[in-house]
Amino acid sequence: xxxxxxxxxxxxxxxxxxxxxxxxxxxxxxxxxxxxxxxxxxxxxxxxxxxxxxxxxxxxxxxxxxxxxxxxxxxxxxxxxxxxxxxxxxxxxxxxxxxxxxxxxxxxxxxxxxxxxxxxxxxxxxxxxxxxxxxxxxxxxxxxxxxxxxxxxxxxxxxxxxxxxxxxxxxxxxxxxxxxxxxxxxxxxxxxxxxxxxxxxxxxxxxxxxxxxxxxxxxxxxxxxxxxxxxxxxxxxxxxxxxxxxxxxxxxxxxxxxxxxxxxxxxxxxxxxxxxxxxxxxxxxxxxxxxxxxxxxxxxxxxxxxxxxxxxxxxxxxxxxxxxxxx
Length: 327
Known about the structure:
This protein is of the alpha/beta class. The chain is built from twelve helices and seven strands.
């Protein structure tokens, strides 16, 4: 498919697809990278993707074509994913889900979760991992989750489903509020397409358009359960842990997205998430990354109110990362 054909498809197809922000995948193999080279490749890839999206938004197909060639020259999406996998390897201490498992330690301790070989689904939480690179991360190995893994261009097609989250079929409408007895008897066996927890780790920053980032965050709420824990696990961990953690969204961003953005800081992000019904129950920042665990409360969703691109920091040297919400 030519770039012109791709551009035509973008104009006529559904809005907000993650695949529209992704360049073609290169099939060339390359040797492993050093830690420094890994960071450089990831940073450069993000810069080129952003420049390509800007060129496409301005209708400059020639410039977009040139940038696509630069992306391909450094290995394309496949090489970027390999670099990301190396960066998240246990040897380099980069598995972001380790932080999530630290936060969920009360559940791990109280339930003594079954091994990954245990087939008792009632004692496992349902997790949707968006942008999954590997099934070998901490949350997958914990035995606590029954994981559904998706990615635009999966490295492991046998365990990771090829799917654009923005095209994932929506679950059926939620039933009317159930009486407490019915909720208590929830056994988590119904496959209604909803989850107890969603992982969105280093994915939102890959979406090039601020409005699409808002759409993605809002869409996660439609895939979360109203009452998260299955009967047996809820009984094991107690109502306090259940109410504190689930249903929830595990969100990870590069720290500069909130620490040095012209349009987004912690307060602005909390306002946006709060409007969607999310309450922050855990957060952590390192020099490189920012982590949050947001509990979803459907009763707190605000159906009105928009968040435009609004400057929250002035001065030179800021990045332009933003989240825009339109309703």
